[in-house]
Amino acid sequence: MTNIEIKTEFIKLDAFLKFAAVCGTGGEAKLMIENGEVFVNGEACTMRGKKLRPGDTVHVDGMDFAVVSA
To answer: What predicted TM-score, i.e. pTM, was given to this entire model?
Structure first.
């Protein structure tokens, strides 16, 4: 599991995928989310604007990430 540090209260899921270098563009992030390829806290998430807070986990493309406070 890779820790991704955020300095804000939350980060939106599509921005998180770009920030964690899972994808290069917002368009790629949008497609991954809409296609049900992204799991937040163990459940498929199709909401691009889903707010992730420290303690949340993301699984995508065989990779696991934990959102942590900086």
So the answer is: 0.92
Total Cβ atoms within 10 A of residue 61: 10
Distance, in Å, from the CA atom of 54 to the CA atom of 52, rounded to the nearest integer, reads: 7
Express each pLDDT in 1-48 by its tens digit: 999 999 999 999 999 999 999 999 999 999 999 999 999 999 999 999
Helical ranges in the chain per DSSP H: 13-19, 26-34
Radius of gyration of the chain (CA): 11
Q: Angle CA(69)–CA(49)–CA(2) in degrees, nearest 5?
A: 35
- List, in sequence order, every beta strand (DSSP E) within 1-70: 2-6, 11-12, 38-40, 43-44, 51-52, 57-60, 63-69
Q: Which two tokens stand for residue 51?
A: 């707010």
